[in-house]
């Protein structure tokens, strides 16, 4: 294996806008809200940034193509700005680009900024569309909840889990995230919800009900990265460094070859295994302090915790019901509320997860601060269970 | 000897309760009470005359190879396209293109029999003709037609080998007797008084045509075992038979109680129904009326009993779901300005150049089979999908439309726009290999389960109303 990214890059500063239905703001205002916080936190001047990566996912309803929207909004000094799109993993992709630039020595300071302005479409849910012209001729008339609902049907079939057991487990996933989101002033949804409300909510795509689906939110998040040496030279303490950055992309075998049974994320298993190797983690269940995973739907989180090699395959639902991933459980997951409650402005989500990790490591997470976290893992999944991009980042204290 | 060598039919699953229609409309049209009995077939929202004709053709070709078909005639008064070869869409769906003459026949209720005459004559030299007929006619709210009509299709394969019903003879007359019409500017039929149609039309035009046909066949009326004559007036066929010396017992049921009149297809639907019940030596007369008359006489042969089993009219009629929701009937037929929501607004423009390049995939459901590892896959691609193979340029075309699939995962989606929510779809897998995320149709909650067996069916996927109604067709999975 290549030498990897471990401890070559430090997070110098981060910022995150308030997530939610930001009727008051366009993408530009959201970008600046996150950036102002990040640049102040980093303690450098905008002119010192050598290169930037800009992530969005749904350009059709959004800022448009290219690096120009970011460069123009921040009035960056004509530096390289690269626009990245990799569906829900876009934010982590921007971060990866910035980190690689620093690790290569091409940049001392690199910016990763992700934004999504979704609430200008006139209707709830993700902006629709039927894909590329050929896909429109044969892809099922599906939605994100409908695609992820099938993860639940296949998971139940593969592991013999009953409908009621699964419904309670995925209900608990959402219940826990609402508990956590209530403690996060930047979260889209800041209200704890009763289990009964969750279980009896209207069906969106069976077996997923309303509370099994994450919020559709506006928001932006940003990170400024540099080397640990420069961070130290700037007088930073509590340095947070990058331990691993992995991405695994489907090649059509799940969607086209009968070897996949639909009950797990093939890519996530691969990306997480490589990430643990890159970070030198031997026993993830014992070593990782916290997770921010891609809970676009409750069942996604449940299955992801197996594919990240934390819960045993087919048994994740039991860990969930045992409270293993609750705020006071063994490994808190979505301590900031997750996509479910913090919200899911697609291009920003990966950076938002890292933002929470960063705050936790620095002891700045307020009412939801965990005790002495050392290693955190973020995970994004873009696409559908049958065809996706899965990104994993591991960050931790620079020691 | 030319004649029919195979037959097939198709009837949509939904059967609209006539009582439900009447109950909704009786405040306005109380006079329809006498028609408020039984049920009529009702096309699903994703069915039209092309999709029904494809299904009937597949049923017909249960026993024969599509690639041997040399002519396709498609009869309908509701061809989805005015200028685009509708019969050619059927051909592509059946994966026949080369050495094929395709023709649409329309303009009259006797289009089905006219197409059959053309197909039989074209097959005399041994080149098989597939004659498909289907109709899905729009009807005005609270009209008698709304209750009388049905949606359905039939298909007949004409040829000279292993003929199951040989053509004894045929005779036609053509005269512009306008009992009803549907102008270019209307979706609906406009009809004249029934008593006039009976007394001046049927009575004066049909018996002489039957007489001429019998004379040409050197037969008498009493020689006819099955007398087939569609009519919206149930007494008329009996009257015409009597006037022609055909025994009353020979007059075939109009299938009105459970199916309704399927328009240009109905004479052929009734013919298929008769063939399902005929025995060798039976003489079958088919009479179709519509600005003239077509009369055809067939004689069933010993080969009829040996024809492999197919669904036919009886099989499709047995697959039935009662529909009591008249509003749904109106909505499916775009008769109701229903609030479809913004998700129905997505542009459905079709890239015709892509459709041409991928027509075997989209219309034929043709995937690929890897010559190196044997993996069947959909769609066919340049690099084999098998993770342990990945051979390049190794795949031969592989037709999957006739394969049974099973459900690997599914959902009922209430969010996406569907004319019939919730939208059922899921990953289907083929036992030979291959899978894709498919829309389901004709599905109920009770039927769709992991492991359920599904049959592929050719359906409408989208209707591009922004461009005058370009229908997108593709294959969906329906409970087997």
Summarize the structure.
The complex is a heterodimer of chains A (399) and B (480). By secondary structure, chain A is α/β, with parallel strands linked by helices.
Structure description:
The complex is a heterodimer of chains A (399) and B (480). By secondary structure, chain A is an alpha/beta fold. Chain A folds into 2 domains: 10-119 and 218-233, 3-Layer(aba) Sandwich (Peroxisomal Thiolase, Chain A, domain 1); 143-212 and 239-397, Peroxisomal Thiolase, Chain A, domain 1 (3-Layer(aba) Sandwich). Chain A has 15 helices and 11 strands. Chain A has helices at 27-42, 68-74, 90-104, 135-138, 144-159, 163-181, 195-199, 228-233, 253-256, 266-279, 284-287, 298-307, 316-321, 338-341, 346-362; strands at 10-16, 51-55, 81-84, 110-116, 203-205, 208-209, 219-226, 240-249, 290-292, 375-384, 387-397. A 9-stranded mixed β-sheet of chain A has the order 3-2-4-7-1-8-11-10-9, sandwiched between helices. In chain A, strands 5-6 form a two-stranded antiparallel ribbon. In chain A, β10 (375-384) and β11 (387-397) form a beta hairpin. In chain A, α3 packs across α15 (346-362) and α6 (163-181) packs across α12 (298-307). The longest helix of chain A is centred in the middle third of the chain and has 19 residues, at 163-181. Chain A is globular and about 55 Å long. The longest helix of chain B is centred in the middle third of the chain and has 24 residues, at 194-217. Chain B has 2 domains: 3-332, 3-Layer(aba) Sandwich (Peroxisomal Thiolase, Chain A, domain 1); 342-365 and 400-479, OB fold (Dihydrolipoamide Acetyltransferase, E2P) (Beta Barrel), CATH 2.40.50. Chain B contains 12 helices and 22 strands. Chain B starts with a strand and ends with a strand. With 480 residues, chain B is of the alpha+beta class. Classes of the chains: A alpha/beta (399), B alpha+beta (480). At the A-B interface, α4, α5, β5 and α9 of A face β18, β19 and β20 of B.
